[in-house]
């Protein structure tokens, strides 16, 4: 009887499913967070009677086979890169991407990471950085005595300096896209890194064809749908319970078989 092992794989798969759903719910208020969905695949099959096999001397063939599957396993988590809602803020350095694309930040080790979180701030040197202090790429430094910052939809950064009514252009923000966004690896802290699966980073200007624009004074909210997550959680719980029941039933059947005299 293979039911014990088969049902056990189902319980482990649903445990992974619940873990993914729990992470989605936990990040429901995380800026720029993209929800994920666990993906599964069936395991190999034991072929006890092959379809199409000859069943008689007259050459008749079996129309169906007898295949017993050995369960299920997790194959990955698919990140759902749909647009999150835009929330207005009071900060001139808060930026939301309306459409495709990522901000690029330079990590301390020299590598680069990518993020949808546009809650930027200024360093002590007047450089625009993320909440961890990592500078954005390309770098933008605001002049001393800057009283206001203006960032256009196409990423042009202009600064109003005290005593001068005319803004000074100080930089150009860019966005980065990938052929396969779902193939990027999450690093935590709202950062992602490129992988072989995602393809190479493709730099572009905001507003280019297939690239989003910037919204100053806004942040992109998480795209987590709480109602959908709760529904998925209930379904995962029921599936876990059914697999548990299958193990209990198989155990009872084996006990009954052992008691036959």
UniProtKB/TrEMBL annotation:
Major site of localization recorded for this protein: other
Positions of the Flagellar basal body rod protein N-terminal domain: 6-34
GO biological process, one term: bacterial-type flagellum-dependent swarming motility
PANTHER family: FLAGELLAR BASAL-BODY ROD PROTEIN FLGG, FLAGELLAR PROTEIN
Record family assignment: Belongs to the flagella basal body rod proteins family.
Protein name: Flagellar basal-body rod protein FlgG
SUPFAM superfamilies for the chain: Flagellar hook protein flgE (SSF117143)
Keyword Lyase on entry: no
InterPro entries the UniProt entry points to: Flag_bb_rod_N, Flagellar_basal_body_rod_CS, Flagellar_FlgE/F/G, Flg_bb/hook_C_dom, FlgE/F/G-like, FlgG_G_neg, LlgE_F_G-like_D1
One Gene Ontology term, aspect cellular component: bacterial-type flagellum basal body, distal rod
Subunit-structure text: The basal body constitutes a major portion of the flagellar organelle and consists of four rings (L,P,S, and M) mounted on a central rod. The rod consists of about 26 subunits of FlgG in the distal portion, and FlgB, FlgC and FlgF are thought to build up the proximal portion of the rod with about 6 subunits each.
Record's keyword annotation contains Thylakoid: no
Compartment(s): Bacterial flagellum basal body
NCBIfam families (alphabetical): FlgEFG_subfam, flgG_G_neg
Keywords, comma-separated and alphabetical: Bacterial flagellum, Cell projection, Cilium, Flagellum
Flagellar basal-body/hook protein C-terminal domain: residues covered: 215-260
């Amino acid at each position: 009887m293979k039911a014990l092992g088969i049902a056990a794989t189902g319980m482990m798969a649903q445990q992974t499913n619940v873990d993914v759903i729990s992470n989605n719910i936990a990040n429901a208020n995380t800026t720029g967070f993209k929800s994920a969905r666990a993906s599964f695949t069936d395991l190999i099959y034991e072929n006890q009677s092959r379809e199409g096999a000859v069943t008689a001397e007259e050459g008749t063939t079996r129309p169906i086979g007898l295949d017993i599957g050995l369960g299920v396993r997790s194959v990955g988590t698919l990140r759902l890169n749909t647009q999150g809602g835009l929330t207005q803020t009071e900060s001139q350095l808060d930026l939301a991407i309306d459409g495709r694309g990522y901000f690029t930040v330079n990590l301390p080790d020299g590598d680069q990471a990518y993020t949808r979180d546009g809650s930027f701030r200024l360093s002590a040197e007047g450089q625009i950085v993320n909440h961890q202090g990592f500078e954005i790429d390309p770098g933008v430094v605001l002049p001393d005595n800057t009283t206001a910052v203006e960032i256009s939809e196409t990423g042009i950064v202009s600064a109003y300096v005290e005593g001068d009514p005319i803004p000074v252009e100080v930089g150009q923000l860019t966005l980065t896209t990938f052929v396969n966004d779902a193939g990027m690896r999450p690093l935590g802290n709202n950062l992602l890194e490129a992988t072989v699966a995602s393809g190479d980073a493709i730099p572009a200007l905001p507003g280019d064809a297939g690239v989003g624009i910037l919204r100053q004074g806004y942040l992109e909210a998480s795209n987590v749908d709480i109602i959908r997550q709760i529904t998925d959680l209930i379904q995962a719980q029921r599936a876990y319970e059914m697999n548990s029941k299958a193990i209990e039933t198989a155990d009872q059947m084996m006990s009954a078989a052992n008691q036959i005299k």
